[in-house]
Amino acid sequence: MASGATGESHVKRANKADASAARRQRAAADLERAATAAAAQAKVNEGKKGKKKGDAAKAPPEGGPLGRKPYEEELRKLHAELVALQLWVKDKGLKVCIIFEGRDGAGKGGTIKAITDRVSPRVFRVVALPAPSDREKSQMYLQRYVPHLPAAGEVVIFDRSWYNRAGVERVMGFTSEDQVKRFLAMVPLVEKSIVQSGIILLKYWLEVSPEEQTRRLEDRIKDPRKTWKLSPMDLKSYNRWYDYSRARDDMFAATDSGFAPWFVVDSNDKRRAHLNIISHLLKHVPYRSPKPQKVKLPKRQKAGGYREPDYAYKRVPSRY
């Protein structure tokens, strides 16, 4: 009996020790979290104290999803540089062609929107061609794309391009393997001619993981603002992930040239992808920022007897 009592006593003491250790671990974890939060808040406060009007935004932190505030700060600076690039392109008559390719949901449209948000559509022109008509199907394949190439003072952005033949058309069976082989053999020659004509050609492939693609496509299904992005072709091509991978690999092997290389972008974090692509293209198109000029608004003319008419305007209701 004494031995049994002693055993029970040992078990109770062990349980109490385990519980005490668990409480200490929880307390240590709570202290660590509190210290981390305090350090983060201290950095924020320090940044607020030291930040002055006109200070440049700090570089976005590495790793993890990029927050909205650092993203918008960086994007604001890059937008200013894109405006400077626009002025230089227009003034010097540069010709720039940018191609965006990638799987459905990779973020091509959002990237293009981030690029063109603060520039003129007369200089930055987006080309997103629909499915070819019967007449276009009878033409030489590249014929429908050539008229959209940039003239002097233009930046043309292709939201999908002639590489449809190597990607979606091949995977979905809209073209034969012989046509794909001829296309892959011909494209480097065509792109060399494009570059030799003076066009700056940039080709970007946006790479997204299968998990992130699934999340984005499901979001399109649920969000009424995004349902227009979900096409029947997206649903048909969704389960052909590795067919697209093989097609991409063949495309890179045949068309990743020294004069027109492919640049691959991790687009799982859309915000980081936007910033990385814009900063990259700014480095690959030579330009100089114009000297700032002082601008002063002139004085308005005097009314000269003008009076607002007593007219029953049909006004838009102020619902908001």
Report on this structure:
The protein is of the alpha/beta class and 320 residues long. The chain has a domain at 68-284: P-loop containing nucleotide triphosphate hydrolases (Rossmann fold), CATH 3.40.50.300. It has helices spanning 2-50, 68-92, 108-116, 134-137, 168-171, 177-196, 210-222, 232-237, 241-255, 270-284, and strands spanning 95-102, 124-127, 154-159, 199-207, 262-266. A 5-stranded parallel sheet has the order 2-3-1-4-5, sandwiched between helices. Strand 2 (124-127), helix 4 (134-137) and strand 3 (154-159) form a beta-alpha-beta unit.
> What coarse outline follows from CA principal-axis ratios?
globular
Widest sheet: strand order?
Answer: 2-3-1-4-5
% residues in beta strands: 5-15%
Average pLDDT rating:
86
Q: How do the SSEs run, as a string of H and E?
A: HHEHEHEHHEHHHEH
- pLDDT < 50 stretches: 1-7, 33-58
Q: What is the CATH class designation of the domain at 68-284?
A: Alpha Beta
Separation of termini?
A: 83 Å
CATH topology of the domain at 68-284: Rossmann fold
Radius of gyration: 29 Å
Instruction: Specify the CATH architecture of the domain at 68-284.
Output: 3-Layer(aba) Sandwich
Largest sheet: 5 strands, parallel
**Total number of helices:** 10
Quaternary state, please?
single chain
